[in-house]
Amino acid sequence: MRFLRERKYNIVSLEELTDLIKNKKKIPSGTVAITFDDGYLDNYTHAYPVLKKYNIPATIFVVINRIGRHLGNDDYMSWNQIRELSESGLITIGSHSMNHPNLSEINSEEQLKEEVFESKKILEKELNQEVKFFSYPFGGRSLEARRMVSLSGYKAAVGTNFPKGSPGDDLYALKRLRISENCRNMFIFWVETSGFYTHIKEQRDDY
Ligand SMILES: [Zn+2]
């Protein structure tokens, strides 16, 4: 986060970025929006203080049925912690579904609706504000899932493994860069944020 600030990246919220794309505005080079998936407890204990320190907006996508739970080696944020983040003005809470299934493996319309629409409704009720963003568990290659997300009233959705050539300007297929532990090395982080490495990987893996 310090690197992004010191290098004068144009750090915007996901909403600002979505509006730029939607209104076909020119996106300044070095524009980034920060997102986190799954709602791990460390988003609250570790990420939030840093985001506050550098005044960096971020969107955190939570899985409804993991909220407040301890599963395997992972702890997830409680409703109270999520509410605090949501009320901070810095953090936007989005939906990452009810149960974190691979949406492309769901055949029932009802079940898909539950994961996509019901999760939005529950979050809105608990946080008392509109939930505008969705993150596809395991990427977002399913067209039915994307259709359901747009029908459910989300403004935009993000994922990781859309087909080659994505995202274009499809607001329901916003592709992200995965920032892994390797990015402790700031050179690797810089290469990742350039988007160039993702381009190379796409050529190699032929998504
Ligand atoms: Zn996830």
Description of the structure:
This protein has helices spanning 2-6, 14-22, 41-53, 79-87, 109-127, 143-151, 186-194, 196-205; strands at 10-11, 31-32, 34-38, 58-62, 70-71, 74-75, 91-95, 133-135, 156-159, 174-175. The mean pLDDT is 91. Strand 1 (10-11), helix 2 (14-22) and strand 2 (31-32) form a beta-alpha-beta unit. Helices cover 40% and strands 15% of the residues. The chain folds into two domains: 2-176, Glycoside hydrolase/deacetylase (TIM Barrel, Alpha-Beta Barrel); 182-207, no CATH class. The two termini are 29 Å apart. It is built from eight helices and ten strands. It is globular. It is an alpha/beta fold and 207 residues long. The strands form four sheets. A three-stranded parallel β-sheet has the order 3-4-7. A three-stranded parallel β-sheet has the order 8-9-10, covered by helices on one side. Strands 1-2 form a two-stranded parallel sheet. Bound molecules: zinc ion. Zinc ion binds at residues 37-38, 96, 100, 137.
At CATH's second level, what is the architecture of the largest domain? Alpha-Beta Barrel
Which strand order do you get reading across the main beta sheet? Answer: 3-4-7
Largest sheet data = 3 strands, parallel
Rg on CA atoms, Å: 17 Å
- Name the average pLDDT: 91
Q: What is the overall shape?
A: globular
How many β-strands, per DSSP? 10
